């Protein structure tokens, strides 16, 4: 639903929802490229000022029709909840990598990823809060794949080595045990040669009203 000039418009039913999602995903990707270009640019100051004015105009065009409610969960191919606007995995959210997660037959999860220049924390390396965010989401996905979808209760991260951006990395996670609505998950981000850079353990708690709602496929 979108709110515009006193009207509520259901754009999904008015047009082709799939084409709209593809268009939004393309906008999200272009915006990611813009963000990295902003971070890395060395163009002259008058060009920066000119581009800023153009961006202000583009921002105004997008604000002409605005969503007023959160996007709902969808059920992914592996039966887990997800939504296109998610800050880690949502294709239409420029903030997201987006993380593309695969489930294995053993109900573990893996994601090939490369951080971007805009994720920089210490010069030349990825910000620890960004890697923690990736771990949070991936571990949550592993809980869901194991049939224990929940919200993060606690997340513990051990930073073993600095994480580079612009290089291929592999993130993996697996559910280790559950007690009632509480589930524990381990995960890590590693170099392609297996060198572990970041390790994490999370406790995920299934809210009472989620019980039985997101059973894996
Ligand atoms: C596939 C998609 C993956 C997505 C992953 C996304 C990960 C996220 O970012 S989620 C966002 C961040 N997390 C949050 O916002 C959570 C906010 N907190 C909450 O909503 C609630 O506190 C919630 C749901 C965690 C627990 O609420 P509720 O179900 O009422 O818990 P409650 O009944 O009090 O406690 C249940 C058990 O969990 C324990 N518990 C509750 N909260 C915590 C906590 N934060 N840490 C440790 N244990 C906890 C309780 O002690 C209790 O244990 P026991 O059964 O042994 O007595």
Automatic annotation (TrEMBL):
GO CC, sorted alphabetically, is: cytoplasm; membrane
| Primary residence | membrane
Name the keywords, alphabetized. Answer: Apoptosis, Cell membrane, Cell projection, Cytoplasm, Fatty acid metabolism, Hydrolase, Lipid metabolism, Membrane, Transit peptide
Give every Thioesterase domain span: 124-193
Compartments it resides in: Cell projection, Ruffle membrane; Cytoplasm; Membrane
This entry's Enzyme Commission designation comes to 3.1.2.2
One GO BP annotation of this record: fatty acid metabolic process
The top EC class, named as a word, is hydrolase
Q: Which Gene3D superfamilies match?
A: Hotdog Thioesterase
Family matches, as CDD domains? PaaI_thioesterase
Q: Which reaction does it catalyse?
A: octanoyl-CoA + H2O = octanoate + CoA + H(+); (9Z)-octadecenoyl-CoA + H2O = (9Z)-octadecenoate + CoA + H(+); dodecanoyl-CoA + H2O = dodecanoate + CoA + H(+); (5Z,8Z,11Z,14Z)-eicosatetraenoyl-CoA + H2O = (5Z,8Z,11Z,14Z)-eicosatetraenoate + CoA + H(+)
What GO molecular-function term can you cite, just one? hydrolase activity
Q: Which SUPFAM superfamilies match?
A: Thioesterase/thiol ester dehydrase-isomerase
Is Transit peptide given among the entry's keywords?
yes
Topology relative to the membrane, per the entry? Answer: Peripheral membrane protein
Q: Where is the signal peptide?
A: none
Cell membrane as UniProt keyword: yes
Q: Which Pfam families match?
A: 4HBT
Instruction: Name the family.
Output: Belongs to the THEM4/THEM5 thioesterase family.
- Name listed for the protein in its UniProt record: Acyl-coenzyme A thioesterase THEM4
Taxonomic placement:
Bacteria, Bacillati, Actinomycetota, Actinomycetes, Streptosporangiales
